[in-house]
Amino acid sequence: MAIFDRAIVRLLPAVPRPVVQKLSERYIAGPELKDARETVRALNAQGKLATIDVLGEEITNEDEAAAIVRTYLDVFADIQQCGLQSGVSVKLTALGLKLDYDVCRANLETVVSDAESRGNFVRIDMEDTSTTDDTLRLYRELRAAGRDNVGIVLQAMLRRTIADIGALTDLRPSVRLCKGIYIEPPDRAYREFGAVRANYVRALEALLDAGCYVGIATHDEWLVEQARRIVVERGLASDTYEFQMLLGVRSALGDRLVREGHRLRIYVPFGRHWYAYSLRRLQENPKIAGYIAADTVGRFLPGRVNGG
Q: Rounded to the nearest 5 degrees, what angle is found at the Cα of 214, between the Cα atoms of 208 and 220?
């Protein structure tokens, strides 16, 4: 299956743009805020929470970063006006981290402040390791300034993650724990599938030991089962953790979690940079490409079962 997934990824640049758009419809809400709104409204009706992300991390100047900030302010206003159950996720490169640290900090403070005024929450996403130290630094600075409506993301594939958890425990952070999708050198990241899984379980245990609220972000059914076992063994109430998944990926598994009484949050990206996001996401995580291909075949060929 891994060979099949990688083959799909190699073919992606040759696939006509309209075809990529058609395939991505279930995985990206659309180009406009209204598309994200209706997607979140539908998810909420299914008993699922959401996190809205504005696509466009490949910014090249401060004006583009400012435009993304304005879009986030529109998102918060829309969430409040429509009574949606959704927070937001921000990538710091979209707010100017690669341009200037202080510009990024000012933009992030604007977003977090507006969220706080509306009773909303901001998840600071984690990108490749060239940004990890600055991302954690900005998170700490916000918490030191009394901003408690902000969380962070940690990646189980990184060798430093357990140490990062230890360094953050004094804050009892809200953490989204994911495997990670960026291509990193072996001295920084585990490359073996089993090693990443094992570190994910270690990181989850460490976060729960520290009393953190954890967003268990994975489509790996084995990891979902491990997480279910851990929360049961610890007797955790359903409001002290949540599962998280990408829009349109492993939907059947997500539905099962909701039926079992677990919180489930769906990541809902939108924006006009959908094409670059689609290619990048699939190229960085070939397994997602395999999920999409299998799902697409299942929708067009009778008798095939949708793997969720």
A: 105
